[in-house]
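Reading group handout, session on sequence-to-structure problems. Before we discuss, look at one worked example. The prompt was deliberately terse, the way you'd type it at a terminal:

> structure tRNA/rRNA methyltransferase SpoU type domain-containing protein

The input record follows.
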Amino acid sequence: MRKLKITELNRLTVDEFKQANKLPLAVILDEVRSLHNIGSVFRTSDAFLVERIYLCGITATPPHPEMHKTALGAEDTVDWKYVKHTLEAVEELHNEGYTVLAIEQVEGSTMLDELELEPDKKYAIVMGNEVKGVQQEVIDACDGCIEIPQYGTKHSLNVSVTTGIVLWEFANKLIKFRKE
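And the output record:
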């Protein structure tokens, strides 16, 4: 096996990305405080053609050099919007016909490996604060909650790692719908 050169990866230009047919998927960051986590979410969202990111509350907005360290320019490709209160973002997406799902450990959550999506729906996922998770009032406004099964002694993952796992699962399923 030969490692591919960056020129062989068929990467989209910024303009091509802006014009690309995005997945019907949005990400809401609910009070995420780490600039590195925010940048990582941008980069992962770029990789999986996420429509847009909502940055809520204390979540910082681009441009910022610390965010850029992990975003590597994805803060310029993925559309984003700042909203002071996360509930406003949830309401806006509901009004646009999105099914909004919090990623949180709650009673009655759906395990990620059991998640079933519908091909004609649009989805948004809410990612919570590094310490407190998704606010209860935001959970109450969502259509449901998704939980990542975990088997060790730690039952929490970094928000950027969680976002990567969840976006992969959504993208994998939504891309299959496009092929059918």
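Points for discussion. First: The domain at 20-111+118-148+155-179 is CATH 3.40.1280.10 (Alpha/beta knot). Second: The mean pLDDT is 97.
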